[in-house]
C-alpha cells in the first residue's frame, strides 16, 4: 500500500458485531478462561516486584484512548495488598494525559513487562490519584519524592502468553535495530512540525535534551 494515498475502509469487510467477530475464531480454551483472577496472587505479586516497566491504558471522557509507559528500578510499583497497587508518577512533559484521563474515567489497564521474559502480566482496575505523604515517601528515588501516586484497585489479573514477544523477537540481540537509523527525538518532532534547524543548532538541541534527562529523571 502507498502511505501517501488515503486509505478507505470497504463497509463490506467491516466486523460490526460480536457474533460476526467470534464467528471468525475458534472458541477460547479452558486455561484462557481459568487464568483470570480478581486479585494478585503470589506469582502476580512476584511479577510486579520484578518488573521495571509497564504501560498504562486510560480513556478520556469523550472516548479518546491513551497508552503511556512507566519505568523505574524493579519493584517501583508497590503491592499494597492483594487487590491494590500504587504507581509513582515521575517527572515527565506535564501533558498529564493519563492523570487527566483517570479523573474523567478511572478504569485503567496495565501491562507489566520484565526484560528477558516473553510472558507479561495484565492488570485491570479502577485508579485514584493519591498524595498520601507516607506512601509517596516510600517511593522516593535519589531522595526525590513523587508528586502523586496512581493507586489501582485491582478487578482483573492474568498472565499473557509469549506469542507477541516471540513473534517480534523483542529480546533477541540479533534483531535489535540501530538507533542511528532514525533521527533524534527532537529532530523527528521538528521535522513533522516547524522544520528542523541546521546541523549545529540541531546538535545543541539534542545535547540540551540529554542534559534535561540527566537533571529531571526524578
TrEMBL record:
Residues 43-161 form the Pyridoxamine 5'-phosphate oxidase N-terminal domain. Pfam families: PNPOx_N. PANTHER family: FAD-BINDING, PUTATIVE (AFU_ORTHOLOGUE AFUA_6G07600)-RELATED (PTHR42815:SF2). This is Pyridoxamine 5'-phosphate oxidase family protein.
Amino acid at each position: 500500500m502507498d502511505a501517501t494515498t488515503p486509505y478507505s475502509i470497504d463497509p463490506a469487510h467491516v466486523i460490526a458485531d460480536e457474533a460476526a467477530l467470534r464467528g471468525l475464531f475458534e472458541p477460547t480454551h479452558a486455561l484462557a478462561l481459568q487464568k483470570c483472577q480478581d486479585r494478585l496472587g503470589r506469582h502476580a505479586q512476584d511479577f510486579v516486584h520484578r518488573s521495571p516497566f509497564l504501560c498504562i491504558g486510560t480513556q478520556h471522557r469523550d472516548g479518546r484512548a491513551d497508552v503511556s509507559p512507566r519505568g523505574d528500578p524493579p519493584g517501583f510499583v508497590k503491592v499494597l495488598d492483594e487487590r491494590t497497587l500504587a504507581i509513582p508518577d515521575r517527572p515527565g512533559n506535564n501533558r498529564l494525559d493519563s492523570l487527566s484521563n483517570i479523573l474523567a474515567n478511572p478504569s485503567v489497564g496495565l501491562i507489566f513487562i520484565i526484560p528477558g521474559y516473553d510472558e507479561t502480566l495484565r492488570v485491570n482496575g479502577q485508579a485514584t490519584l493519591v498524595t498520601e505523604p507516607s506512601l509517596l515517601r516510600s517511593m522516593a528515588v535519589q531522595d526525590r519524592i513523587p508528586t502523586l501516586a496512581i493507586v489501582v484497585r485491582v478487578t482483573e489479573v492474568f498472565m499473557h502468553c509469549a506469542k507477541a514477544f516471540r513473534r517480534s523477537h523483542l529480546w533477541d540481540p540479533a534483531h535489535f535495530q540501530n538507533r542511528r537509523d532514525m533521527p533524534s527525538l527532537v529532530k523527528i518532532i521538528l521535522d513533522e512540525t516547524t522544520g528542523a534547524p541546521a546541523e549545529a543548532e540541531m546538535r545543541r538541541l539534542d545535547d540540551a535534551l540529554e542534559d534535561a534527562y540527566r537533571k529531571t529523571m526524578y
